[in-house]
Amino acid sequence: MGTHTEAVHAGRGDLRALGVHAPPLDLSSTYPIHDLEQAVESLDALGAGAAEAGSPLYARLHNPTVRRVERALAALEGTEDAVAFGSGMAALTACLLAACRERRHVVAIRPLYGGSDHLLACGLLGVETAWVADPVGVGDAVRADTGLVILETPQNPTLGQIDIAAVAAAARGVPVLVDNTFASPVLQNPARHGASLVLHSATKFLGGHGDVVAGLVATTAGWAASLRQVRIVTGALLHPVAAYLLHRSLPTLTLRVREAQERARVLAGLLEEHPAVTRVLYPRPDGVQLRGPGAVLSFEVAGGIEAAAAVMAGVRLITPAVSLGAVDTLIQHPAGLTHRLVDPMAKEALGITDGLLRLSVGLEDVDDLWADLEQAVTAATGMGLKGRRPRAAVVAG
Hints:
Blueprint: H1 3-9, H2 15-18, H3 36-47, H4 64-77, E1 81-85, H5 88-99, E2 105-109, H6 114-122, E3 128-132, H7 135-141, E4 146-152, H8 164-171, E5 176-179, H9 184-187, E6 197-201, E7 215-219, H10 221-234, H11 240-249, H12 253-272, E8 277-281, E9 296-301, H13 304-314, E10 319-320, E11 330-332, H14 344-350, E12 356-360, H15 366-381
């Protein structure tokens, strides 16, 4: 089925049997045990990573509402299964614990989301991380004890693109995890290009309304079983209310992403023409791996951190806040916020400068967004368009 159809119907296969139109919300923390033998069999199955069993037993082991949104993401990503967690970072932690039980070495392509970078760099999980810049670097860094290769594409916050198939080839059989948060399943499906694990901070585009914190991993049935085992012992299950809200948001995912993307295209072009903007970072989709540039862009203003802070303080319609993928437009300062804990030398090498701002474009009228952005940038830098009409929007590299 097409993406629009999957987004509307995925994860709702049991509704006819239940005799309902909307997915029900199951808030049970525990479930009655009327047959001890069945309960014991269910506990063994769920403890081994089964997706379902004869009895749910306890909400940390299984929840029907959570299971529906897992099925939905698997359908959208084209994978055998998916596993939901309480946040994107909980999902990444589970992937590392599942993949690196014996092989403790990880290869990661920078930049990543700052929280992901910090988790890998701080040593909390006992992994050793080799940082590389591209697929060639992956091939050079992979060792016999490498348990996982991690990348994000488009990258946060520089919007660079990584060839997933090239990374998978360079990894020589080592599992590859791709953070697909920026693109969403609407624009990119990493499993088609060799990724073993497709990570989403579902807080972002999948949830889409700024009211859910969640993480999802789309993957094979075997990996899903391993991730459930980790989830059970760490207690990282997504709460059913969050799962319900997340699933309710999916039918509009395709519409939201594509509408926001069109506004981002326009703003990227207008920012290119502003004299105070020294750099605009926005993906160039190849149409094969990445089917559209998406709704997130970054731009650098002259004047460093003082000017960037003034832009954030000067917007009136746009919300100065971390996160992305919501229906309203958000602006934030990566060097000082989302990527503050990244090694300073790495930030400098990656171009995450003090003047760089990340813009997650929402669904407001693009003229209103530009009016707000233009006045804030002009006021912050003292440089304006001075009556010149910007050329038509372009997709900047």
